[in-house]
Design goal:
The protein has 188 residues and is α/β, with parallel strands linked by helices. Helices cover 28% and strands 13% of the residues. The protein has helices spanning 10-26, 38-48, 68-75, 82-85, 154-165, and strands at residues 31-36, 60-64, 98-103, 124-126, 179-182. The two termini are 18 Å apart.
Length: 188
């Protein structure tokens, strides 16, 4: 890294995220990674590494505004290719219970991921942006949300609630609510 810039946080963020998922699993919790933007890249890296999660763990992954394919597979095709994402498809080698990816067509950074996923169920959901086209005469039309509107979008949260409700629990643990683990988007 450049001597006047902060060091890369990936060396710490990904192992910390993996340890947190392991701890939640060992504590009887169900894990759902909810990742926006750069957090989607960190979540992807944390989940595709074999041996960094306990056997039988079935976390869910929710990404939105994900640059994994739109920017990273374009800019770094040797690292971010379909072979990297293949284990992440639901039922794949990474053992994910579910993966949903949301994107707005107006998002300049985030986009599709399942065009790079071989086989399996589609994980991408395009959200109309803006959500409604109705406005009162004389008022400004609704603004698009671009890359930052996902956290406040009720459509995203209703899908997250649905995936969380369907997460498998261990015997006697079905009454324990899932713990949302937001993947970090920048160093703390």
């Amino acid at each position: 890294y450049h001597p006047l810039s902060p060091p890369c946080y990936t060396e710490r963020a990904i192992p910390d995220l993996q340890r947190r998922m392991w701890w939640l699993h060992d504590s009887g919790g169900r894990v759902m990674l909810v990742a926006h933007s750069q957090g989607a890249v960190l979540a992807t890296a944390a989940l595709v590494q074999s041996g960094c999660r306990p056997a039988g763990d079935q976390p869910a992954l929710i990404t939105f505004g994900s640059p994994v394919c739109k920017l990273y597979s374009w800019g770094f095709p040797g690292y971010f290719d379909p072979a990297l994402l293949e284990p992440l498809r639901p039922g794949g080698q990474a053992g994910l219970h579910d993966w949903r990816n949301f994107y707005y067509p107006t998002d300049p950074i985030g986009g599709l991921v399942d065009r790079d996923l071989p086989g399996g169920d589609p994980v991408d959901t395009e959200l109309l942006d803006p959500a409604e086209c109705y406005y009162l005469y004389g008022q400004a039309p609704p603004a698009s949300k671009g890359h930052s509107g996902y956290w406040a979008d009720a459509r995203v949260w209703s899908q997250i609630d649905g995936v969380a409700a369907g997460l498998p629990g261990r015997p006697g643990q079905d009454d324990v609510p899932p713990v949302l683990v937001p993947a970090p988007a920048r160093p703390l």
